[in-house]
Amino acid sequence: MSLVDLKKRPAGKGRKRLVFAAVLLLVIVCGAVGFSVCLRWKENSRIEKKRRIAQIRVQVLNGTKESGLAQKMADDLRRYGFDVVDIANAENDSFPETVVVDRADNSTGNAVYVAEALKCINIIPQLESRSYLEVTVIIGKDYNRPQKKGFLGRF
């Protein structure tokens, strides 16, 4: 039986089922490969983020009158994997809100990682070329307050 003979053969139910099964198998294989690539990409992204977070040196300053907040926040940041290198009081103890200050990155990429961990929305760039720090966190009076929940229970 040659290839020409197969083409001349009328398409029956068996041939259509075979084509359908082949297409279905191809779709399943492509889906499995795509899913595997997606999982691999997501895992690599998570590892890269964790590696980058470990390289961010953070200073935590207490900008409130409540003692011990800087140590508590430093412990929280260390649990996330940040390198907290300095804990102190801020010049002023009446900061109304917590602020994340980016010291080394124009795109505020380092500060965004810290702000995400703290669920803080206040990020300001204040570059210091001579500083060994990447990020400074100044704790404000809003730290430790229960956060408001939205309509669906999300922030």
TrEMBL record:
Pfam family, one: LytR_C
Domain LytR/CpsA/Psr regulator C-terminal, residue spans: 55-143
Listed name of the protein: LytR C-terminal domain-containing protein
